[in-house]
Design brief:
CATH architecture of the largest domain: 2-Layer Sandwich
Radius of gyration: 35 Å
Number of strands: 10
Largest sheet: 4 strands, antiparallel
Number of domains: 3
Distance between the termini: 39 Å
Order of helices and strands: EEHHEEEHHHEEHEHHEE
CATH class of the largest domain: Alpha Beta
Strand content: 15-25%
Length: 256
């Protein structure tokens, strides 16, 4: 219980745990409810997305961008990332993506398609992966392969001495990449668990009523207990106000 001693409040963690244990049925119900809401929302309102990817190889010969020329060797661990950063800028340029949109016949605008494309080097090698995520597995595969066909020529026109080869073309994804029903359901269950526990704990801490005689004698041992109002309701008996006579017989208050 929340105890006041020397103007400070102390929380009995054991009693707090007992409160949660006694309200365990509420916690379980709210947790299941949170999981069900998260699963239902994910299933009904979040469209599945599919990711297709293609692999490209970047030659590490001397290349030049504008008037700057630099050489990258196989020993340089940051070589792949430098090239990927350069080619990613070219990939997401309006010139390249507008051609991809025109060839694929997609309804995405330049800005929308740009957000659905990403690229990264594979294990710090000269191979980098381009991924395309859309709501259609066929469309993701189609756009990724068009990029694999268009991008090398565009890079060669812009970056002198570059050599980009296709390592692997994209295939139609057989499973969705998002959303994850199990992950979202687990998040919903966790949110329900936290909210239920928080509500019970806050209600417990804000409850300043006296729950029992033991609380008074334990919390204020220096103050004598003058009287205790008995609970006149006997749950084991029909009616109310029963008490025992000196002879041990029960009598009801309605009988006088």
């Amino acid at each position: 219980m929340l105890e006041k001693k020397n103007e400070e409040f102390e929380i009995d963690l054991l009693e707090l745990a007992l409160v949660l244990w006694h309200k365990l049925w509420i916690i379980i119900i709210v947790t299941i409810l949170g999981a069900g809401i998260a699963f239902g929302y994910t299933f009904a309102f979040i469209k599945p997305e599919y990711t297709a990817s293609t692999l490209l190889y970047v030659n590490n010969s001397n290349i030049s961008v504008g008037s700057a020329t630099f050489s990258i060797s196989n020993a340089d661990l940051s070589a792949a990332q430098k090239l990927v950063d350069t080619y990613m800028v070219i990939l997401k340029s309006r010139r390249v993506l507008n051609e991809v949109i025109a060839e694929s016949g997609t309804s995405y605008t330049y800005e929308q398609l740009s957000k659905r494309i990403s690229a990264a080097s594979v294990n710090n090698t000269e191979v980098f992966r381009i991924t395309v995520t859309t709501s259609s597995p066929q469309e993701s595969e189609k756009i990724a392969n068009i990029i694999a066909r268009v991008l090398p020529d565009k890079i060669s026109d812009i970056v002198l001495g570059s050599d980009v080869k296709v390592v692997d073309y994209a295939v139609i994804p057989s499973a969705r990449s998002a959303p994850s029903y199990s992950k979202n359901t687990a998040i919903g269950a966790m949110a329900g668990l936290v909210l239920a526990c928080a509500a019970i704990i806050i209600g417990y801490l804000l409850d300043d009523s006296i729950q029992s005689e033991d609380y008074l004698t334990t919390s204020y041992p220096d103050i004598p207990l003058l009287a205790v109002i008995p609970d006149l309701v006997d749950s084991k008996s029909s009616g109310y106000g029963y008490y025992k006579t000196p002879q041990g017989k029960k009598r009801g208050s309605e009988n006088g």
